[in-house]
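Data availability (excerpt). The following record was deposited with the supplementary files.
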Amino acid sequence: MEDALEEERPQVAAARKRLVLAASLMASFMAAVESTIVATAMPTIVADLGGFRLFSWVFAGYLLTMAVSIPIYGRIADIYGRKRVFFAGTAVFLVGTTLCGFAASMPALILFRAVQGLGAGAIQPIAATIVGDIYTPAERARVQGYVSSVFGISAIAGPALGAFIVEDLHWSLVFWLNLPIGALSILMYGIFLRERVRPRRHRIDYGGAVLLALGVGAAMLALVQAESLGLEGSAAVAGFALLALAAFALHERRQSEPVVPLRLWRNRVIALANLGTFGTGAAMMGVNTFLPAFVQGVMGQSPAVAGLALGCQSVSWTFATFATARVMIRASYRTSAIIGGVTLLFGAALLALLGPESTVVLAFLGSLTMGFGIGFCNPAFLVSIQASVGWEERGAATGSNMFMRMLGQSLGAAVFGAIVNFGLARRIPGAEDAINRLLDPALRHTLAAGRLARLGAAVAASIHEVYLALILVAAATLVVSFLFPSGLSPVRPLRS
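Predicted structure:
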């Protein structure tokens, strides 16, 4: 079966292969630095634009449109080739990126982030698919180390640049930094990637994508804004979400090529890997969304320190990915995933220990440990999926994995945001403006000492509840890792 799966691998000269890999690394860096630099800047952006109750939507809106568009891009890439689809998606992403820098309110920023997400659905999945096309399974395990090294670079550059920009320049530049990177990656793919695409007749399930976006988006709205919508409003939105998702399920059953190819889920490796990836995606948002806010708002640290705390996750993620390549080859995908699941659970427990009196070292350790867990899990899940299908399905299979990661991230951001919003409404109702000032180092001094302490305690307690939920997510991911088939590795693939 291995020969059949690899028979359509494009033959690429070694020098050109390295240049294509370089373009893929730049594309991955663009996606990675977007996450770290925006997360670092978000407390300052919220303090400037206001709207703390909409905080999580800046992440959730971006991730939702990204998640829904990933399977579409994956399928189109299988039909028309990777390169042209990457160009189109990256162009949309760069338009959204430009608009984000001009946002004058939180609703506008959320809208422009959604545009960004529509384009971002093509970037990392197709870059990963191209790497899967030009390298063998054993080579992919090693190359994943290079691909993930960009997360280490972004972990250092993103938070540092984000802190510098929000302290000394203007936060709009955190978005605009990606413009030249995106343009260069398009240019390099255009010059060095040559594809031989066999014409295929396919149908694209745009209707399914719309129904999925409506259903998941409404569910997220009911969760995050439940406190402001009230009981009747939340019930109405939740009812609409259920109807849209039911319509989506019925629609997908009638499609020959659905937006979420459920037939791929009959493969045990793909099903478990996608479930595990959903868990790591949700877990990552527990760090990305609220750790900078905790360090900056509760601990009173600077944006630079908040960025460093967040960066610990990406640095350890990078080192873990290099290590997991060896583990996958010498042991198995399952071994790597179990190591990651255990580490993820330990990291969540460390974050749950954070409180107003904690030292920032504990925040660093929690973030660092979470990164190790994600770094051991994600490559094992992705490489195992790519090794289990042929070229004609690799885009869809990779897309399904990226879809589940982004869906996990978007729902994680929504659920965690709902937990924080409910917690703050219960503890200090009507204090949104004060929380905006709490997050701004330049305005914290305007709050009286007693008020500052009460706000910090309320935010800390609300985020603590997020980290208790994160423990459950990490435990579920560990269970999925134990269920993964034993013995499979890049050098011991599935046999027909």
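Summary of structural features: The radius of gyration is 22 Å.
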